[in-house]
Amino acid sequence: MTKDEAVAVLWEYHRLHQNLKPADLLLVLGSNDERVGVYAAGLYRQGLAPRVLFSGGAGRFTEGLRGTEAERFAAAAEAAGLPREAILLETRSTNTGENIRFSREVLEENGLQPQSIIALQKPYMERRTLATLEAQWPGMPFQVSAPQMTFDEYLTDTLNEEIVISAMVGDYQRILEYPRLGFSTEQPFSARAEEAFLTLVGLGYTSQLLR
């Protein structure tokens, strides 16, 4: 398998391609890609949910940046047309598990009890996000989505090929390893995705692997 083939296979494995239906809440999990916030604003304008909760303090890729992930995402969404009164913030979390735990606390503090949620993340984190939500918020109906982009469309000057491929590789490993720790649910195994993962590890995209 060539590098380009491996990238395409792993990118596609991480995607879920769910057809979204209206829900009670958009839960936006913070990261280093504020385009997810803009995507949330678009879904809000389409009527997919009446409230948007942005969750994120600082994580692997955002330590040291000004403001929290939630604040930066909310600002990007507001600039894209999301009304301020529709916004909730959770600014303490440092990983996906904390995104869920602290977001639930924010909802409780605001007297909100959503019966269905659309979670938004980066494209290559859709599957791991769903697996984490299923394990750590059982019983809640979730849909998961991300900006609709190909791998090449996703790349920017700051989110370059090295960063994104390494992150995809790291997330694939976490999909395999985290269920045995109770962090997430088991996901379908793909022999092609495993081959792609091993190909990219062999090519040196290892900076985001668990140690």
UniProtKB/TrEMBL annotation:
InterPro entries membership: Cell_Envelope_Assoc, DUF218, Rossmann-like_a/b/a_fold
Organism superkingdom: Bacteria
Pfam families: DUF218
Entry GO CC: plasma membrane
Ranges where the DUF218 domain occurs: 25-148
PANTHER family for this protein: DUF218 DOMAIN-CONTAINING PROTEIN, INNER MEMBRANE PROTEIN, PROBABLE PERMEASE
Protein name per UniProt: Rossmann-like alpha/beta/alpha sandwich fold
Species: Akkermansia glycaniphila
